[in-house]
Design a protein that fits this description.
By secondary structure, the chain is mostly helical. 57% of the residues lie in helices and 0% in strands. It has one domain. The radius of gyration is 17 Å and the shape is extended.
């Protein structure tokens, strides 16, 4: 049990560390960020979202399998 907990913690820590190092790469300014992260519309990514919704895995969205999509409704 303890070993499984340690593995889970280490995995999460590694994910956060990778994310932080990626964020640091863009801390040099807005122009560099704009150059490396293009602006896209929903229509640009819609085919990829549909593929994931239909069960195809995507490491871009999440390293873990996506099992549910939640839609939030407001009244």
């Amino acid at each position: 049990m303890r070993s499984k907990y340690k593995k889970t913690c280490w995995k999460r820590y590694s994910e956060v560390a990778r994310t932080q190092s990626n964020l640091d790469a863009f801390s040099t300014g807005a122009e560099l960020f704009k150059k490396n992260v293009p602006v896209v519309t929903y229509e640009d990514v819609k085919p990829y979202m549909e593929r994931v919704a239909n069960g195809e895995p995507s490491d871009v969205i999440s390293g873990e399998p996506i099992t549910q999509f939640f839609i939030r409704y407001t009244l």
